Amino acid sequence: MQSLVAEKKVGKQSVPLEKTVSLVSAATVAGPKESLGPLSTFFDHRCENTILDEKSFERAERFMLEEACHLALVKAGLSSSDMDYFIAGDILNQIISASFCARELSIPFLGIYGACSTLAEGISLGAMLVQSGFATNILVATSSHNCSAERQYRYPTEYGYQRPEYAQWTVTGAGALVLGQGGTGPQLESVTIGKVVDGGIKDPFNLGVAMAPAAADTIYNHLTDLGREPSYYDLILTGDLGEVGQKLNKDILACKGFNIEPNYADCGTLIYYPHQKTGAGGSGCACSALAFLSLFYKKMMDRELHKILFVATGALHSPTTYLQKETIPAIAHAVSLEI
Amino acid sequence: MGQAILNVFTVLGIPEKEAGNPTVVTVIFIAAILTGLGVFDDIARVAGAGIIVPVTGFANSVTSMAIEYRREGLVLGTGAKMFALAGSVIVFGVMTAFIVGIISALL
Questions:
Q1: pLDDT per position as a tens digit, A70-87
Q2: ipTM over cut 0.85
């Protein structure tokens, strides 16, 4: 009888890969506010407004996601029929952006929900599928839209209220990438699947702080599972902790004996200028997707960065749970890339 | 701002005691128009409680919900959701008025 031990797993949560799976291509579609931000020049497609001549914000978000998928396929020189799976998710109820986009693509579809950690979750699942020979090419995508998210999670877009300084701004945009065997892009070196961690935060405006313990837990477990120091990486990049959350993440890891300060960045703090009045930075599925798949993907392709640990974080609450006074559970998945 | 409008109505010949009603109507109208134009939320971010707490905030909460849910149809969208935010103001407003009414009747 065969051994029941998962031979390819290391430690409690990590899976080292054989560096045969690569990010063949990456594409980003950014909303208007993001297109005025610091990363503007790195985006593939910049939208001029949030509604895009569509009937609703939900349809506009779907359009962005479809556009990102189309661009990623074009860049890879492949068509949708070359894709074995389409793995996607978003933060709208019943992940409608992803599944309605899948309706157009007609690729076997795996819909996932990891809130803002969706991109890292998709890359992790895709990498394991390709590595184990169940697929050759996989399309991974995610999106979020400020207006569709605001109406679902908070208030109508035209409702006047004062946001707290530590609140984050949901990023409008979409990102897509093609995972494939071989290729010259950044290779998947290992993945660490996160546990759900609850820091006891109840305030739905304070998501950075709610997600920081999950990010720290995943980074800690990734480093200990693989026996590494933070300095192994050129950059440790978290998804959308924002100004407040990223400080907490650094502090928690420092208490556990890992100093990530010298090579740490957070996508949420990079996507807007301070004068854009977004509070503590960006959030949403598209936050990590827009930053990672534009600027950092390019830096890897230009060989400026060789080893990145990408940790996307997600808050797993819903409008119902916070009204019922539940705390906010959070998750983070880590993906290690090398070139 | 309300005072300025009230003064205009008094100049137009409405007695000061009765000028309050058209003033409130005008302020609600302006708030609704500003919401429709998409600038009310920007003003509220700067002006804060000065514009959110008075009747302008109430008008904004109704209008913004009406606009937001227009895409779900007139009956199940706008009609059903219009007072979702403002409804509690009405419920607790009526309740408070009722309790205060009983107290004043007993005194």
A1: 999 999 999 999 999 999
A2: no
Say whether both A89 and A150 belong to one domain: yes
Q: Are residues A172 and A200 in the same domain?
A: no
pLDDT band with cut points at 50, 70 and 90 for residue A19: confident
Query: Is A44 a member of any domain?
Result: yes
- Closest residue of chain A to B72, computed from CA coordinates: A56
pLDDT tens across A251-277, in order? 999 999 999 999 999 999 999 999 998
Based on the domain organization, do A175 and A234 belong to the same domain?
no
Pick from A336, A325, A330: which is nearest to A115 by CA? A330
Residues on chain A touching B48 (C-beta within 8 angstroms): 162
Taking only the tens place, the pLDDT of each residue in A37-61 is 999 999 999 999 999 999 999 999 9
Cβ distance of B65 and A157 shorter than 8 Å: no
Closest CA to A330 of A224, A218, A242: A218
Please check whether residues A240 and A152 belong to one and the same domain: no
CB pair distance less than 8 Å for B64 and A157: yes
Find the radius of gyration of the CA atoms of chain A: 18
Query: How far apart, in Å, are the Cα atoms of A22 and each of A28, A136, A167, B41?
Result: 18, 11, 35, 45
**Which residues constitute the domain of residue A20?**
14-181
